[in-house]
Every structure is written in C-alpha cells, then in structure tokens.
Amino acid sequence: MDARRPLLVTGSYGQLGKAVIAEAGARAIPTEGCDVDTIDIANRGAVTSWIIERRPRAVINCAAYTAVDDCEDHEDEARAVNATAVAHLAGACNTIGSKLIQISTDYVFDGTAKKPYREDDPVAPASAYGRTKLLGEQAARTADDHLIVRTAWLYGFGGRHFVGAIRRQIDAGNRQLRVVADQFGSPTFCDDLAAAILDLAAVGASGTVHAANTGITSWHGFAAEIARQLGARVEVVAVATSEFPRPARRPAYSGLDTSRLAELIGRRLPTWQDALTRYLGSACAS
Ligand SMILES: NC(=O)c1ccc[n+]([C@@H]2O[C@H](COP(=O)([O-])OP(=O)(O)OC[C@H]3O[C@@H](n4cnc5c(N)ncnc54)[C@H](OP(=O)(O)O)[C@@H]3O)[C@@H](O)[C@H]2O)c1
Is residue 281 part of a domain? Predict the structure, then answer.
C-alpha cells in the first residue's frame, strides 16, 4: 500500500470503527473517519466524492445497520446500508484504484454446522440482517481489490454489546442471570480484530477471511466467564433459545475457522478469554 495515501474508515463512531482508527493511529497511518452525521454511505454522491477526493489506500467499511432484530421489520432500510451502499463504495474504490475492506458476519451462515465454518462453506442466512450482509459481500466483490472480513460476537470500547449488558446486570445487584446456552460462537474483542484487519491490509490479503478471537463458547459460557473474571457472586443459569423468543433467528452454531487468517498474518488471535481479561482490565470498559 502507498504509505502517503490515507486510510478511510466508515462507521467511525461504532465500536469497531473506533478500534480501527485507534489502531491505525498507533501505527502512524493517516486516517479519516466518517459516520452517518458527516457522510451517509447510503448517499451515493456524497460517499463517492468523499472517497475520490481523498484517494485512500483503502476504505474499511465498518458502517452497518447492526440492529439484528430491527432488520426483520426494516429489511429495505438495512439493505440500503448493508448492501446498496457497499456497491457505492466499491464503485468509488474502482475509480481510483483503492482497496475495499468490507466487514461481514458469521450470521451469513445458517448455524447447522458441527465444526467451525471455513470461508468457502455454503452460506444460508437465517435472518434479514444476515441476508443484507450477504448482499453486502456480493457488492464488495465488485471492487477490483477487495477483502471481506467475516467476524462475530463483537465487543469493544464505547459499543453496545453483550459484555456491557452482563456487567450492567451484575452492577445492578442481580444475583441470578439466565443466559442462552444453545447458541455457540466466537466472542471477539474489537481491538484484536482491528489489529488483524490492519495486518491483513499490510500483507495485501484479498478475498474472504474469517477473523475472530480463538475459541468457541456459548452465550452462557461467555456470561459465566465475564462473571468469573469480575469476581461476581452470581448464578449463571443455562436456558434454551426457545425461552427467549426474539424477532430474528440466530445461528445455533457459528464458530469461525480462522486458519486462513493465521496463514496470512502468521499468528492466531488471542483466545477469547485472554481478550476478555484485557478488555475488563481497561478503565474504559463499560
Ligand atoms: N456487533 C457484532 O457483534 C458484529 C458481529 C459480526 C459482524 N459485525 C459487523 O462488524 C461491523 C462493525 O460492527 P459494530 O458492532 O462496530 O457496529 P456499530 O457499533 O453499530 O457501528 C456501526 C456504525 O455505523 C454507523 N452507520 C449506520 N448507518 C450508517 C450510514 N448510512 N452511513 C454511515 N455510518 C452509518 C452507525 O451509526 P448509528 O449507531 O447512528 O446507526 C454506527 O456508528 C459491521 O459491519 C457489522 O455488521 C458486527
């Protein structure tokens, strides 16, 4: 990548966008972010001009309609951001020879697998969110130089996420937590993912790559580990998904095989338990 060209990050107020900008800053990469109040990526003219004027080395698209349950009733709005806007980004990147790095999700899989999903496993999203993100992947592939990074179960500074929700319940004095034990995935700390994304960009990776902290657990296992690391005296009760009906169907199993990531950047990401320790140990954790 041409070191004089900046990096552009969309969704810069989001938990991953913030982490990518912080990591790029630590690597002294000139970076500019946008969020919906400055550049709405669904506004083709605005986002195209923004990219073409800056001639970035790469655009990292962290912007998305991420309210998974809301997508069920607002699929058109979600598609506009998660897919149509990605086509705008791809078109602008092609005009000036920039790389498009699109962030995608484990929810493109149906969750019926019994072992971690590889990049070329068949996709079959079970939710509106997953369908719009899959269309976003297809749009990203129209960029001549593209990288699609599928990740999962994110938490990070300043975000709305599961770790914060469990912590708030503990802080409120709740002594019994009822948590779904029949959905399995890969909890991932945005700081570790941001480092992986920039490492992938640095080695010129392209195509599709799965990136997540190492290890797979259930939401129940994740909650029990959060409580343990916080030293909280709470009972974490395992419940079935059927006891918590929600508008969007989640995959029962969406562990990601990260072998390709390890081959490309020469390392696996730390375990999810190690990542959680570093997150909870930070004064900024919510
Ligand atoms: N969170 C997860 O567990 C998870 C798991 C797998 C993959 N991912 C993917 O990872 C990426 C980052 O997720 P995240 O958790 O960091 O999401 P996030 O915290 O919700 O951040 C997304 C950001 O994008 C902004 N945005 C929404 N529509 C926009 C638009 N039209 N133009 C510009 N900005 C817009 C959002 O603003 P508002 O908040 O105002 O809408 C928000 O600041 C997304 O692609 C997501 O699909 C997330």
Answer: no
CA distances from 215 to 49, 97, 196, 269, 275 (A): 41, 36, 16, 10, 11
CATH code at 36? 3.40.50.720
Please state the atom number of ligand 1 nearest to the C-alpha of residue 129. 47
Question: Is the pTM for the entire model greater than 0.90?
Answer: yes
Q: Please tell me if the CB atom of residue 257 comes closer than 6 angstroms to any atom of ligand 1.
A: no
Displacement of CA 190 from its chain's centroid (Å):
8
* Closest ligand 1 atom to 61 CA: 45
Ligand 1 touching residue 147 (CB < 6 A)? no
129 as an active site residue: the answer is yes
198-218 tens-digit pLDDT: 999 999 999 999 999 999 999
Q: Which domain holds residue 196?
A: 7-160+187-214+256-270
How far is 183 from 162, CA to CA, in rounded Å?
14
pLDDT band at 3 (very low <50, low <70, confident <90, very high): confident
Question: How would residue 244 be classed by pLDDT, with cut points 50, 70 and 90?
Answer: confident
8 Å CB contact between 257 and 117: yes
- Ligand 1 close to Cβ of residue 130 (< 6 A): no
